Amino acid sequence: MILREKFINMKIKNALIILLVSVPVLLSAQTKNKPAVLAGVPRPKLVVGIVVDQMRWDYLYRYYNRYSTGGFKRLLNEGFSCENTQIDYIPTVTAAGHTCIYTGSVPAIHGIAGNDFIIQSTGKSMYCAEDSTVAAVGAVSDAGKMSPRNLLTTTVTDELRLATNFHSKVIGIALKDRGGILPAGHTANAAYWFDDKSGNWISSTYYMKDLPKWMKDFNDQKIPETYLKNDWNTIYPIDTYAQSTEDNNIYEGPFKGMTTPTFPVKTSSLYKSAGLGLIRNVPAGNTMTLDLAVAAINGENMGQGDNTDFLAVSLSSTDYIGHQFGVNSIEIEDTYLHLDRDLATFFTYLDAKIGSGNYTVFLTADHGAAHNPQFLKDHNVPAGVWNDASVLKALNAYLLDKYKIDGLVLSMTNYQVNFNYKTVNYLHLDQATLKKDCIDFLQTDPNVAFAVDMDNAQTANMPHELRTRILNGYNKDRSGAIQIILKPGYFSGHSTNDKGPTGTTHGTWNPYDAHIPFVLMGWGIKHGTLTRETHMTDIAPTIASLLHIQAPNGSIGKPVGEALK
Ligand SMILES: [Zn+2]
To answer: 357-395 burial string, b = 16+ CB within 10 Å, else e?
Structure first.
């Protein structure tokens, strides 16, 4: 729309240009603090993508009353919220989520089939960002052997680099390597992640030979120690956390070195044995990540040039804390209140540095989380855990009995049956029969809702919505041959006592795992909300549309036009 108007109004614009060129003082006064305009294309100076790891959509409202005016409330009150954004594949895990957000694509196409997945041809387990050909930069650590090479498609950040002949700067930042690397794409200037051992933010030789000076300076500040020396106390008096279960309960996992999952968390003494990686599990981990976002924008002069820059930030501590304490904990409630304050500070910084209205922010999540199963059961909601390790054992025993061959199934990674194809092929076993035998066995499990042959998922007797999620998640080279779908409220896990596992997890198709926030704010964004269903795959095409660049090359999403001015 904007571009068409531009051509219609060409004559008027030409006249304007002549007028402006003839008044250079006026021109320089007017372009100061104006959005970047490359070859006449209006774009923001900076895009900041924020992924809040494990943020359920309902957290926008669950803690709304206690949010400040400058954080989540500002996003909702100034920005545009797509209220019904769904993840359309399984498994709903971190690596697949970050990849989908930035590629507009699904595991079937982008190849990131899980945090870890089995290369089906070899049976080898692969970590999503693993790359043995590169080394750490900024520390001596195996944590640096990471790159985006397992990713098969471009990201919207790649497309921005390609569209501007690499003039735009792209940087990815997260405590988790995969949270920084996958969003930043193949052509990024840099991705940075946290090394527990050294307490440094590091990168890999995929991106650079040496850390830039600003990053060395940031590491020299020893921020992890500084933050950990302050114990984690709740922001408000603990008896006012009305949205959560009382502090000491059986559904939460205590920190190592503590006997109860309760406040205060004395990180000042705990970190001496736990190490600096403890910062991942407290709200200060997110604070430090946003500190680094500011240092990167300052150090790299992001948003100050003629081309749009893109900072991809992922906040990982919400996920670590969620896994440990679960959805209904004071720890999670307080974590979101801390994050809200940190976001308010960050937005205020962007207003001053880039200029209010000159940047676009979007905030979303890679997946949600389930309630703790025992907590649900104690409130009469059907739920439970499914011990994938013991099911694997039982399935292999069943197959041993039937085929007289041991170890036919390698793993149940990502709720999928991964076969040992070396043996299957060597013995010329009939795969269709083998799969049918496994499915028959799995369907006798009372926790299993469906067990589906991936090759026949299209015609499986189940709701269309589930079939779509299986097909989108199935990458034939990297996913198992049978998909297991548990009953609602169930997830895979195990416990050492009869009270079930503490904390929670995610990975299923169910709304608690698959309904995520998607809020945009700033340059080019209307104020409003949308209740029609949108999809995680729509995020990258929406940003591409905002920037007038090509959608990523594996994108299957559609731009949310309603959000754009
Ligand atoms: Zn995650």
So the answer is: bbbbbbbbbbbbbbbbbbbbbeeeeebbbbbbeebbeeb
Residues 342 and 484 in one domain: no
Residues 79 and 155 in one domain: yes
Domain range for 487 is: 384-492
Compute the distance between CA of residue 311 and CA of residue 303 in angstroms, rounded to an integer: 10
- Report if residue 473 sits inside a domain: yes
Contact (Cβ atoms closer than 8 angstroms) between residue 293 and residue 35: no
Residue 240 corresponds to which tokens in the numbers above? 């006012």
Residue 91 C-alpha to ligand 1 middle, in angstroms? 11
- Measured in Å, residue 319 CA sits from the centre of ligand 1 at 6
Residue 29 has pLDDT above 70, yes or no: no
Q: Is residue 31 part of a domain?
A: no
Q: Ligand 1 centroid vs 19 CA: distance in angstroms? A: 53
Amino acid of residue 563: A
Query: What is the reported pLDDT for 5?
Result: 43
CA distance 382 to 373: 8
Tell me the pLDDT tens digit for each residue of 234-283: 999 999 999 999 999 999 999 999 999 999 999 999 999 999 999 999 99
Active-site positions read 94
User: Which residue type does 18 have?
Assistant: I
- The structure tokens 């409202």 sit at 61
- The DSSP 8-state label assigned to residue 416 in this structure reads E
Per-residue pLDDT at 344 exceeds 70:
yes
Q: Hey, how many other C-beta atoms are within 10 angstroms of the C-beta on 258?
A: 12
For residues 54 and 155, membership in a common domain is answered with yes
